[in-house]
Amino acid sequence: MTFEQLKLSPPILKALAKENYTQPTPIQEQAIPPVLAGRDLFGCAQTGTGKTAAFLLPIIQLLSAQQGRPSGKRVIRSLILTPTRELAIQISDNFRSYGRFLNLRSAVILGGVPQKAQEQALEQGMDILIATPGRLIDLMNQGFADLRHVQILVLDEADRMLDMGFIHDMRRIIAKLPAKRQTLFFSATMPPEITSLVDSLLTNPMKIEITPVSSTAERIKQTLYFVDKPNKLPLLIDLLQDPSIESALVFTRTKHGADRLVRGLTKAKITAQAIHGDKSQNARQAALNNFKQGVTRMLVATDIAARGIDIEELSHVINYNLPNIPETYVHRIGRTGRAGLSGIAISFCEYEEIPYLKDIEKLIKQNIPVIGDHPYPMTMKESTPTAVRETKTSVTSSEGSVTRGARKGTNRNDAAGRKETSEGPGRRWKRRS
Ligand code: AMP
């Protein structure tokens, strides 16, 4: 299948050639024809599948093809709602690339930056508005945003918008749109709230499901280190002695944790910057650019800030903390191994995070291979029924194969309570006295 066969117009084809996109990704192949035909769409897909172009390309084509298009001040012809600032900027960058030979106007509305320029953009009107819900609501409340002319609505990463507590903002925004419109809805996961939102917002949608959430995990080489919380930093510094980890995106649970980790890494002479919600938009963009250009080796991020990050050829993702929402693990490791490349995901699990690990392994339907042979093995708590764990671990290289086993003839549970039945000598995990 080619982009020509999808009946995209010459200016768009020319822009795609400039981007070196030679053929559509599966979601683009399936989404572009129904969207061009005016249908509602429900796409179950995550970032990395090419979903942004799957909605932007047909929208650009539809909007640019309209004769007698509504002009005039304050008119907004399509609205893309997205959970994070980074994602909004990314979509805007993509729009500029794909629409470079067309004369469409866009604007981005997001928090963390002064409002004045956004007021002016809204005053002028635009073809495509890309917005995060919070700031858009603010501007609507102040009477700056008029959504009455929106013909096409995109809800991007709707599940994440729900996770971030945007449901009421989303509903209030949608209530201001014309009932007669085209709606494109994307979500990486399908919890019941999403299904009911889809039912209430879409009319006879075309449904497309690309790579169910668990399959991302199959492309990526994953390893796990059980390690006590205070030893996480020394372990990370130890692992980073390996020069094959040229750069890595590191996830922490909290903003403070991210800052603390950056300080620790910097002290160990490992270049690192943090990206999280307390940083100004400019600081976040600068940290991202430094990382992309190789000025910093480590980018330390919280989940919310990392959501929109698209870094080509990111080889390593490190989970300094395991997330409490299992889908988040898949989103995180999905930052690597994009566009068919393989990637490496390293996770640290402290005692308190073992329940999270169990949830993650249930979701991805696999046990993450454990590296037992490292300088900072976890000490177990007295109360743990499965406190003693025997592992045989061989690591052929930092990226090499990992095998795991239990003490010969025993059948014990590992730290995560998993059955271990294979044979081999092992390391005994000390009980904390
Ligand atoms: P997305 O899933 O929209 O975040 O896209 C993931 C990455 O794939 C982005 O860096 C896009 O620029 C890139 N991409 C999207 N569509 C194509 C395509 N047809 N060919 C090559 N790369 C693409």
TrEMBL record:
A motif (Q motif) lies at residues 1-29. Transmembrane segments: none annotated. Residues 1-29 form the DEAD-box RNA helicase Q domain. Keywords: ATP-binding, Cytoplasm, Helicase, Hydrolase, Nucleotide-binding. CDD domains: DEADc, SF2_C_DEAD. It is an enzyme of class 3 (hydrolase). PANTHER family: ATP-DEPENDENT RNA HELICASE RHLE (PTHR47959:SF13), ATP-DEPENDENT RNA HELICASE RHLE-RELATED (PTHR47959). Its EC number is 3.6.4.13. Residues 376-433 are annotated as: Disordered. Residues 232-384 form the Helicase C-terminal domain. This is ATP-dependent RNA helicase CshA. The keyword Nucleotide-binding applies. It catalyses: ATP + H2O = ADP + phosphate + H(+). Residues 32-208 form the Helicase ATP-binding domain. Residues 415-426 have a biased composition (Basic and acidic residues). GO terms for cellular component: cytosol. InterPro entries: DEAD/DEAH_box_helicase_dom, DEAD/DEAH_RhlB, DEAD_box_RNA_helicase, Helicase_ATP-bd, Helicase_C-like, RNA-helicase_DEAD-box_CS, RNA_helicase_DEAD_Q_motif.
